[in-house]
User: Fold this.
Amino acid sequence: MESIKIKTDNYNFKFRVSGIVINDNKLLLVDMDDSGFLCLPGGHVELGETTEQAVCREMEEELGYKLEIEKYLGVVENFFVNKYNKTMHEICFYYLLKPLNDETARYNDYCLIENDKGHNIKLNFKWININELDKYDVRPKFLKEIIKNKSIIIGHIIFNELNQN
Assistant:
């Protein structure tokens, strides 16, 4: 399958999904390829795939176990500059998930190398206490407040880091 993404000279566009997994007041986050910041696990939606199918597939690929959707949380239109200094336009659907089988789930920090269509990505998973999120560089930046607020409702957000000084 082909991931839904477009690259031009000025912008990179990606259609993504992200999963929020919480256990014992800890949020699962990932540092991808030693980027220095943490984000939610997830990935690209593929052509012909629903966002629900994509989030379950991506989470299983990245985590190594099956999860199920508890709740659709919302969609974010995100404009930012990535770690390679590329201007990004991203549409991301967010879901609250839980492990299908608690015995196969991992509730400790761990590292995994994912082969993503021939490209190896180092994934450092960390369980971060929600009350300590302010100590970390979590992206997108609006995410910390939504998670700490405990209601975890996203709705529809347009987040544009490009217009902030």
The beta strands are 5-7, 12-23, 26-32, 42-44, 67-81, 87-99, 110-116, 119-129, 155-160. The radius of gyration is 15 Å. The first strand starts at residue 5 and ends at 7.
